Amino acid sequence: MDQQHQINLSEDPWKTRETLIDRARDPSDSQAWDEFTNYYSGFIRMVLIKLQVTRDDLEDFSQDVLLKLWQGLPKMEMGRDDARFRAWMGTVIRNAVYNHCSQASTRKRRETNAAVADVAPPDIEDIIESEWRKHIIALVIERLNASFSGKAMDVFTMTLDGKSVDDIASAMELTKASVYVLRNRVRTRFLDEAKQLRSQLEFRE
Amino acid sequence: MMTESNIQTQALNQLFDQAFDERDPAEQSPLYVDLRSLEERYVQAELIAVGGMKRILKVLDRRSNRHVAMARLHEDASDLLFDPFIREARLTALLEHPNVISVHDVGVDKEEKPYFTMDLKVGDGLDVVLQKALADGGCPLSDRLEIFLKVCDAITFAHSRDVIHLDLKPANIQVGHYGEVLVCDWGLGKLIGSTDEIDDDELLNPDLLSGMTVYGKVKGTPGYMAPEQIRGENRDKRTDIYALGGLLYAVLTCRPPLAGDTDTMQQAALSGDIVPPTERGSGVPESLSAVVMKAMALEPADRYASVSDLITEVRAFLGGFSPVAHESGLSTEFLLFYRRHRVSCNLAAAFVVMVVVVTALFVDRLSAKRVEAEALAARLRVEKQETETLAARLRVEKEETEKLAVQLRVEKEDSEALLREIGLMTTALPVDLVATGDQFSHDFFYQLPLVSYELSIRSVHEMIRTEPERADEARLQLAYLYFMSAEFAEAKPYFEIDPKRMRGLARVNEALAESFDPDKHKTSATQLAGIIKTLLSMNRKVQAGKFLAYDYASLGYREGYGLAVTAMFGNHAHCFSYEAETQTLTIDAGVESFSLRTNQGQYPLRFLPIKRLILVDTVISDSSEITDLKMLEMADLRGSQITSMGDLNMFPQLKTLIVRPDQLSQEEEIRLRPQVRIK
Lengths: 205, 679
What we know:
The structure holds two protein chains of two kinds.
Chain A: H1 2-11, H2 20-24, H3 30-50, H4 55-72, H5 82-112, H6 124-147, H7 150-160, H8 165-172, H9 176-201
Helix pairs in contact in A: 3-4, 3-6, 4-5, 5-6, 6-9, 7-9, 8-9
Chain B: H1 2-18, H2 25-28, H3 30-36, E1 42-50, E2 54-61, E3 66-73, H4 82-94, E4 103-108, E5 114-118, E6 124-125, H5 126-136, H6 141-160, E7 163-164, E8 173-175, E9 181-183, E10 190-191, H7 197-203, H8 206-213, H9 227-230, H10 237-253, H11 262-271, H12 277-280, H13 286-295, H14 307-318, H15 330-340, H16 342-428, H17 431-435, H18 442-447, H19 449-466, H20 471-484, H21 488-495, H22 505-515, H23 525-537, H24 541-555, H25 561-567, E11 576-579, E12 584-588, E13 612-617, E14 634-636, E15 656-658, H26 666-672, E16 677-678
Parallel strand pairs in B: 12-13, 13-14, 14-15, 15-16
Antiparallel strand pairs in B: 1-2, 2-3, 3-5, 4-5, 6-8, 7-10, 8-9, 11-12
């Protein structure tokens, strides 16, 4: 398992000491943009869907937001606090949404004469927070699935569901000691992966 | 499901939040946390033994989580004993050997008292083992000696580290259940060397010693303690060797070397008054007893120089050799050799016996065979001589037989021709023919010329004798007969009696009588042909026929006989050609017509062996003309008028018949086909 872990780390694009933000400052690094898009586009789309952006606008909108984030990254102040990153991200997205909506509403007003007053909902911060968590957790689970056996993952899932070690041991036909070992292994790995992804993608120091 | 999902989401969110938290090591490594938080290392103390200076406790080492033995000084022990105690611990720790008890930890406890821990001993002390062996006979001598050798190993090792034990005795040797042997209690042990001397003095401090007597113990144990040790003199490795001697004594006899109270024992030890082990226990090997006595010699110089020497002696015994200490004789050595190699010796002995027996049997059988062979040879010699005599006799007989055979052959040849005709005559001739005196009948002469001739000669001579008046007439007959038999010289005088009457025959005979002598050479076929032609030209066909018949009977077929035979056909002789090699007779008559028989009914062709007959152009129309050709195998009938072969029994050899396509009738062909090939 340790070996698998090692291999996984070595394959990890984030393992380089150079962070994405460092690379974003380098205009010649075209790969950096691709990676950024890869990690953020899904998340931004989800946020925008939650913000009830219409399907028609979704593509343009998310591209717009991605670009703004990308451009804003080098200027962002780094900090230990992830809240700061999310706050910044919230601001960027909110502004982008407002801009977009105002442009759209101007256009729409011209077309339909209807007023669109308050497009962005006030709880945008919460939405970003919740979607970001989901996004990171999904990425971590994806990585865990790649490196652990189904049995280990089952034990982990059952633990998450709040099942007792005894129940898991009898359900999986394992000894309690094995359940402990498997559970702890996956849990530790979860924490490791979450820490790594967050430190990279939340642009911590 | 929904709630579960919520619980899961919550748990995952918790993990998300904990990503940057400090990890609790206890969560992953409870043992580590446990070990880290350990305050008191040794717990569950349990007293198991009390010694002169210290107590032994069984404790649980919580760090390694096992039970170990812990040695502590007595509660009220003097502080002066701290260092000797620690020295013992370190001395023992120095000796890392499988047969020396291991020290794990040396330290000072909360009460500022020193302690050390070591292997928790299992099994019994050797003293207990020996007592049991004495009581119920368990643990045989060989096992006890193995234990002793392990003790020797430990002491050898200690000596190599310049450590001497000085308190070797059965009670200080621990024997485990699986043959583990541990030498314990190195409390009196010391490092040989100048630096150690001060400590040694300190140990001998009277205060200390008196302090130790509080516990009623003497330093060292009588019986195992060397005299120099008792006297408090210089102690060295040989002091341990004395103790090992005592130990071997105990191992052999299962009893301590000395008995009685301490003073008596000390006195005995000092005077070297030791009862040899052989006298203390039954079944003690004499050789090992000698080893004990040498190891326990009063003077250190008389003992073994090193433990390894002692080991060598004991191993020699175990290996079946006699120890050097034991002055064994040749018989003992032999006995030991036998014991060492019992199986090999038995096998070798059995083999030798077998070889001897087999050899003896073989030699016996051999001499019997030789006697037999000699008898046989003698018999053979006698038989050989007999055989030679017999052979000589046989040779003589054979020569005689051969001579006889030659004679018989001559006689046989002489008589054969005559016998044949006589046989024929007696069976085939009608009696009346002879009886009537018709010896000159042509047929008779033709058929049996020799017999006929013989009979005629006799009857003529008879006639000359009985009828003198007809003698001349008879003599004429003789001339005639002699001529027939080609005895021209014989015939000549008889022809001269009346030459006219014999007409030209007398002249012919005269010419022939002059030309050759039948006694010297036979008539050739050419001459025969000439005579026949001459006779025919004189129109004496009968005489010619008889001449040929007699000639054939007396001389038989010879080269050129075909000419003689065909000459019989006179003018038609040119129609015949006979090829002797293939025995083929070709008859080409052209327009001439004649019979193959003479006027007298003779059939001259019977004197020729004819297998192939070729009729080229003849008027022969009846197969009866050729029925006398008994040897015929092939007949070419195309040049004849023959249309039927008649009775096939007449031609027993006939195989092939060559005919014109329409020559034979259909019935005749059908009749002949199964027996002859028809072309």
